[in-house]
Design goal:
The protein is an alpha+beta fold. It is about 40% helix and about 20% strand. Strand 5 and strand 6 form a beta hairpin.
């Protein structure tokens, strides 16, 4: 049908010079209008350019309903009432209903409207009005106009009120000659616009063109077309955020610490941080203990002795915790509960370098990696999560320095409403919790403080040196950035794959 339509279209334009109405053309040619529209699109394409097609033109087609067709030949209800009154004289409504059960109601209504009926209020009977003499129904004229194809919007509106007319809204097109329009009937018979042009070529077609030195017909490439989306993996939104924060730390002059130690000894994870061995965080209810290997014995002996003494009787002006420190407890292996253990390693190496050279390596250091805690999971807690850890080491640093660093960091990612709350940590004094507002609620996103001398001095760092430090949960920050109500929306069966594919890192 479509191939027949394209030839008929070209023949019509060759004969008449243009097509004014594709719908009328299809009706006259006995073709389906959709087939004509398809042929117009093909002939008007950039590759064919046989015809120039207009934009869609909206129009309305009016036709008589079944009732309208009936009253085109049969008397209208008001004409039937008029005939009864002419034959029998004045009639009441009940008498008219008995004589004309189907037509009386509409006949009285529209007869009164046409002023051809009059109601005697005294007798409550209908009689002929003066206008009835020589009356011709305007509704019958409207029906005939629609039937003859001469109806308009107003006529259709009047007839539709009586359900005599139906309206079909259509879109049609006009067309005229294009740049490649055939010059004669003979060229129309050749149908050059039906030559299929390739969107791309096979290896065989390329070899054929190379051998013949002739190009095969090819579609003009659309350089503005969007490419197809390939099937590929996507970086997890949390990893996008991790990379963003890593770049911010590096831009602020921080040095990244090596974090490749998921399993660590209790000595590095707790004891070097001045966490007492009876602290609740060291219980099996809060920490994952490793069964095999169960212990680590490779610790610096001198550092172990200083740690034992600072825990027990105290050093450097501290009274310690006044308990018997157990080296066997310190040797137990755990899944690290925080990346502060990495900070402890780094600080110890800086302290030992100072002891050897007398030169202190001051600076800013950070890490972002996974930690593990045996916690009850809820919408803000997981057993496995990522922690951002950072510290700045120098002489005479204070809490205000740390607050300034944290504000500078978070301003880079659009978080300006930081709040600080006094807190307690075994290895920092003073200590502060870091809070922000998420969905109208205050949410804790990290902890911070100044490392205690009981932690720094045994490492070999000199008196007067301080380290300001903080740790932030990456998942909680991610919930704020991606406007998630629960941290579980980032992991497991609840995560949305379209979210993984479409979520971007916050803009700097």
């Amino acid at each position: 049908m479509a191939q027949e339509a394209d030839v008929r279209l070209v023949q019509e334009v060759l004969k008449a010079g243009k097509i004014a109405n594709s719908h009328e053309f299809a009706k006259a040619a006995g073709l389906d209008h959709q087939a004509v529209v398809g042929a117009l699109a093909s002939l008007g394409s950039e590759d064919a350019q046989v015809l120039v097609k207009s934009a869609p033109i909206k129009a309305a087609i009016y036709s008589l309903s079944a009732a309208g067709k009936e009253f085109l030949t049969a008397p209208l209800p008001e004409a039937q009432v008029l005939a009864v009154l002419q034959a029998n004289g004045p009639q009441s409504k009940d008498e008219l209903m008995k004589a004309l059960p189907k037509a009386a109601t509409d006949g009285i209504k529209f007869g009164m409207k046409e002023r051809i009926l009059a109601l005697d209020k005294a007798t409550q009977k209908f009689n002929l009005a003066p206008a009835a003499e020589g009356w011709t129904s305007p509704t019958l004229k409207d029906l005939q106009a629609i039937q003859d194809g001469k109806g308009d919007k107003d006529i259709a509106k009047r007839l539709s009120a009586r359900k005599f007319c139906e309206t079909l809204n259509i879109s049609y097109f006009a067309a005229e000659k294009g740049a490649n329009f055939p010059a004669s009937e003979a060229e129309v018979a050749e149908k050059p616009w039906r030559v299929k042009k390739a969107a791309d070529f096979t290896a065989e077609q390329l070899q054929e063109m190379w051998a013949s030195d002739e190009l095969l017909p090819m579609k003009k490439p659309n350089l503005n077309a969007a490419g197809t989306m390939g099937m590929h993996g996507n970086m997890h939104p949390l990893m996008k955020l991790r990379q963003l924060y890593r770049e911010i730390f590096l831009e602020l002059g921080f040095e990244e610490m090596d974090t490749a130690r998921f399993v660590d000894s209790s000595f590095w994870n707790f004891d070097t941080l001045f966490v007492p061995q009876k602290h609740p965080a060291r219980d099996a209810q809060d920490t994952f203990f490793v069964v095999d290997p169960e212990k680590t014995t490779d610790h610096p002996k001198e550092y172990v002795e200083l740690t034992k003494e600072v825990h027990g009787e105290g050093l450097y002006g501290s009274r310690g915790y006044r308990y018997q420190w157990d080296e066997n407890e310190a040797q137990r292996n755990v899944l690290r509960t925080h990346t502060t253990a990495i900070s402890s390693y780094t600080l110890y190496e800086i302290g030992q370098e100072y002891q050897r050279t007398g030169k202190l390596k001051t600076g800013a250091f950070f890490s972002i990696d996974r930690v593990f805690r045996n916690e009850t999971m809820d919408k803000t807690h997981l057993c496995e999560f990522h922690q951002m850890e950072g510290f700045v080491l120098d002489y005479d640093l204070s809490l205000s320095n740390m607050m300034g660093v944290l504000k500078a960091f978070f301003e880079r990612v659009g978080v300006e409403n930081l709040m600080f709350k006094p807190a307690y940590n075994p290895y920092t004094e003073p200590s502060m919790e870091i809070h922000t507002v998420q969905n109208g609620k205050i949410m804790e996103i990290g902890n911070s403080g100044v490392f205690r001398p009981e932690m720094l001095r045994p490492m070999g760092l000199p008196e007067g040196v301080t380290a300001i430090a903080w740790g932030l949960g990456l998942e909680r920050v991610a919930c704020r950035h991606y406007k998630l109500d629960s941290v579980h929306d980032l992991f497991g069966h609840r995560i949305s794959l379209p979210f993984v594919k479409g979520a971007g890192a916050p803009r700097l």
